[in-house]
Write a structure and sequence with these properties.
Layout: H1 8-16, H2 21-28, H3 37-42, H4 59-74, H5 78-89, H6 95-104, H7 107-114, H8 120-128, E1 132-134, E2 137-138, E3 151-154, H9 162-168, E4 181-184, E5 189-192, H10 207-215
Antiparallel strand pairs: 1-2, 1-3, 3-5, 4-5
Protein name: Small ribosomal subunit protein uS4
Keywords: Ribonucleoprotein, Ribosomal protein, RNA-binding, rRNA-binding
Family: Belongs to the universal ribosomal protein uS4 family.
Length: about 220
Amino acid sequence: MGKHRLPEPVLRRHVRTSGSMSKLSRALGIALTPASVGPLERRPYPPGQHGRSRRKESDYRLRLLEKQRLRAQYAVSEAQLRRTLATASRSGAKTGEVLVEELERRLDAVVLRSGIARTVQQARQFVSHGHVQVNGRTVDRPSYRVEVLDVVRVAPASRSLAPFVVAAAGGNAPEHVPPHLEVVLPALTVGVVARPRRAELPVVCDEQLVVEHYSR
């Protein structure tokens, strides 16, 4: 069993350490932060002495890679992803699509997509430090699930802090804001106007392979 497994402790360590996000981006083949775009373009292969070598990937490794990509893009733990998958599997709809849509309802994901935060790690920090409110109430859980008609905003007392001044000026503005969000960056406010839809989300992942990974 052990000979077929990828070193998932490496994924956990990289997700928690912002300085290694470029290495993780290269390992997964996707840019996880704006700062990792350049290194990935210059060296579009995994780090390490064998990074350039090409080898045939097993079905297991391909499915595991997709799961790692999804985890990294939302910076969620293995347990969090499993719980979200369990919720998605009970929905009656396509499990993979619902899985991504449920992850997108996380408060830290909303803060990221709106342009208030530059990376998902920064979004998690903003929420956990009490800088974000939902419907006027401070919420410090990045995993909090937003609902349609919720209003997410930066707490008034936090708006003068440098990261939020940059955000309000459009410094983190994404190229594309998913249509389920209505963003007013100068006011550091986000309205949730619909449920997220997988086809409209900028997530690089074959979610069906993630479902198959857990179904094996």
